[in-house]
Amino acid sequence: MPIFKRSDKAESTAPDIVIDPNVIQLGDRMVKVRKVAVGQWRELFAAVNMLPELIMGVMSAPAENRAAYLFAVIDHALNDIVQVVSVLTRFEPEWIEENVAPDELMAYFTAVARVNDFGGLLKNVQGALKLTQTLDKAADAAMSAE
Question: Which phi-psi region, left, alpha or beta, contains residue 99 (left: φ > 0; alpha: ψ -120 to 50)?
């Protein structure tokens, strides 16, 4: 007679932990990444200098070169990145500089880009610019024909 019974079922006493991919750690704080509202966009444009052009360069770079572009962005625009994170999180820039590691900044930045579909936004803007150019050429041709 066996004293111990063998069970094929594993018992788990740990609670189910749900990890939210939109929650990022910055220093000793956890931050939920949210959609950027129009008012925040205005604040962001007031807070940054050259960062938008650098981000567009990274996003439009060939996939195999994006890492190199990203390091160039970090090198040239760290102050702008701190300002952007400050606007989005409402943390003081000084606190960010003293408590947040560069990899945490990049994780936050990447999550913000994902949540707000910056890649799709860029494609839509590029499409609108191409459409505008096409319409301008058509208008010029129509004017020339008259």
Answer: alpha
Distance set, CA 16 to CA 1, 19, 48, 142 (Å):
37, 10, 41, 66
What is the reported pTM? 0.58
Are the C-beta atoms of residues 109 and 81 closer than 8 Å to each other?
yes
Q: Are 27 and 95 in contact (CB under 8 A)?
A: yes
As given in the structure block, the two tokens for residue 55 are: 């981000």
Q: Is 33 in a helix, a strand, or coil?
A: coil
Beta strands 23-26 and 29-32, pairing class: antiparallel
pLDDT interval class at 94 (50, 70, 90): very high
Please identify which residue in the block is written with the tokens 């949210």. 34
